[in-house]
Amino acid sequence: MSKKFLPVLLVLTVASLFVAFQTQGREGDNPKTKNEKILRNVGLLLEQGHYSPKNINDSFSKQVLNRFVKDLDADKSIFLQSDIDSFSKYNNRIDDEIHGAKLESFYAINDSYTRRLNQASKYFIDLLSKPFDYTKDENVLLDGDKLRYPKTEADKKEVWRKRLKYMVLSKYADMLDDREANKDKKQTAVAADSLSTIGKAAPKKFVYKVDSTLEREARGMIKKQIDRYFTTLKTHNTNDELFSVFVNAITGEMDPHSSYFAPVDSRGFNEMMSGKFYGIGAQLKEDESKIKIASLITGMPAWKSGEIGVNDEVIKIGQGNAEPVDVTGYAVTDAVKLIRGSEAGTEVRLTVRKPDGSIKIVSLKRGEIKLDDTFAKSAIIKGEHKIGYIYLPEFYMDFEKPNGAKCSEDVAKEIVKLKAENVEGIVIDLRGNGGGSLPEVVKMAGLFIEDGPICQVRGRDEKQPYLWKDRDKSILYSGPLTVMVDEGSASASEIFAAAIQDYKRGIIIGSSSTYGKGTVQRTIPLNPEAENPALAKTSEDLGTVKLTLQKFYRINGGATQLKGVTPDVVIPDRYEFFKSREKDNDAALSWDEIGKAEYHPWVSTYSTNAVINAANQQVNTSPTFKNMKQQVEWIDKKNDKEVSLNLVKYKADLQQMKVAYKQLDSLYKLPKELNVLNSPSDTVGFGADKDKRERNKQFLNRIKGDVYIDETVKVMNNMINQTNVALNAAGAAESSKKY
């Protein structure tokens, strides 16, 4: 903790005593008193500690109210418009509550939410009791931002009717497709008036069922899912959990990376980090009441399978050959419990729905996270020139062990191996690298430049930024260099890419921009006394706040915040339409710039501008990338429209989407694979370890068919060719002097 921030902690300590004294005698309601303490202390932290605090005034209050209501009811299926109108009395109230006024807004909105949720939970039984009419020409809009709150309870029930019909239609269409795919395996015809098989284990042999039976079973499945969905909501939406949502609406309005952890959340997080568990290496998220894959951990089973992708929807989770559990409507935490296991090697089967609507069952073996799979690794690409490729999934550093793993040292080792193989250029792949240790970024950048500043960091009210510098004049690698980035390259990755770009040390290649996270956070206890072992037993744990304290700036003076790093060579990106960057969050801190640091750009043996211009022209005229961009734009527009609830139109639209995704997938596969191999020293290290050899094989295969790496190799070839011409010319000139 910096000395500069100690006064804020002192203020928090005094504030805790003040609020405790101020609230004594209030109805004797301890939970409410505690919530008021939390709110007051969060406000103090934000106002006096946040890097760029917004004024906590009436305008801020209104934004928090809107955010809280949206967090509770994102798809506008719970509240009525009259509820929203009634909440307007708190537009100018929440800021007063943060500053010490009696807390009223949360309890009023919470009560209304609970009441309306109970009402909505009763609709589905009646709505799913009879078949839907799939010949009717009607649509459903699923984007909550474009919807209006229903005016009456009848309007709200109609909202649910359409949503439920969409869910049943989706399930019904899948069942029809499955029947069509298995029609040649027909065993038994099931009449429309036969008993339903809902809730029973699937028969071992395919059983042909008529349309009405499939539709009834689809409704039965959705009924179970929605029942579970509301049960989960009611179970998890305790006053404490909803209050955490309320406080996070306040911190989230200040900026996307400041957040509140209730005591139980922070304790659970610490226990998870210190314990051991086995899983598949996938982070889950809740999106429109669906469980989706948020990210994959490099080297873990889900990543290695190549069959699980970001934004895949998890529909079912099964243990080995046991009947899978339909997790539609589950809370993410409950789904995670089903995926995790107590032993490595045990099987878990995920049924996922891909973004194109297709269903896939993926069998995975649970594994313990292997650190060596998240470390830097390299390969050699042999083509027109011999090029070294280094993949770095994160800027790691073992803070607990002085001699532990450090990415800068590991990358240096890979460079030494590649230089021993006489590579003519090196590619650093930072795609999906979410960041990590800043000191490691500085050291790693220092491998490619003589010495000098790498980035600037400025705290609140600091006139002069702190310069993070590489002070080692030695250069490990001085040849042609490219850095690959995408929308998932964030924080430390952006600092590295920006430094390489500002020094003109190499060429940055990737999607339209990196993520755009240019802020630094630190976790602060809301009650500092609870952190003192001597006082912990008598101190009330109020939780913690992850607070934004500093901002990163490039050495050219521009912030990486919001804008990220724009690559020199921009390649169309298939995930562009997900709109998941920092700039897509309306509470993100703004971009700005400060003074330029003093540094000396690299003098290249090739014309940087000539290489960049040629590469961009090549991308812009490439039929592959042109088609890729068109497909991505088409999918984006298609996803932005209403969904038809007419079976014929729905299936036609779904087929169009599947074709588009299939075409897009084909564009990402090279017609002729790259020639990729290991350094000899790596193959020696595999020994008899079959698991290592298999992981290495998957690593090489990923490189071979990657269209982005192929384009990077083309850019690198141009750099190498220009370098060789320059070196030959210099050599000829030197020889002529001797004669």
SSE layout and pairing:
Blueprint: H1 6-22, H2 30-49, H3 58-72, H4 81-87, H5 94-98, H6 105-120, H7 123-127, E1 139-140, H8 153-181, E2 189-190, E3 208-209, H9 211-236, H10 239-254, E4 259-261, H11 263-274, E5 282-287, E6 290-296, H12 301-305, E7 313-319, E8 325-326, H13 332-339, E9 347-353, E10 359-365, E11 377-382, E12 386-391, H14 407-420, E13 425-429, H15 438-445, E14 452-459, E15 466-470, E16 481-485, H16 492-502, E17 507-510, E18 519-525, E19 544-553, E20 569-570, H17 608-621, H18 623-639, E21 643-644, H19 647-667, E22 675-677, H20 680-686, H21 690-704, H22 707-738
Parallel strand pairs: 2-3, 12-13, 13-16, 16-17, 17-20
Antiparallel strand pairs: 1-21, 4-19, 5-6, 7-8, 7-9, 9-10, 11-12, 11-22, 14-15, 14-19, 18-19
Helix pairs in contact: 1-2, 2-10, 3-10, 8-9, 14-15, 15-16, 17-22, 18-19
Which properties best describe this structure?
739 residues, alpha+beta, five-stranded antiparallel beta sheet, 15% strand, globular, disordered N terminus
In short:
The protein is α+β, with helices and mostly antiparallel strands and 739 residues long.
Explain how this protein is built.
- There is one protein chain.
- By secondary structure, the protein is α+β, with helices and mostly antiparallel strands.
- The chain is 43% helix and 15% strand.
- It contains 22 helices and 22 strands.
- The strands form six sheets. Strands 20-17-16-13-12-11-22 form a seven-stranded mixed β-sheet, with helices on both faces.
- Helix 14 (407-420) runs parallel beside helix 15 (438-445).
- The longest helix is centred in the C-terminal third of the chain and has 32 residues, at 707-738.
- The model is unreliable at 1-5, 15-29, 189-201 and 267-276 (pLDDT under 50).
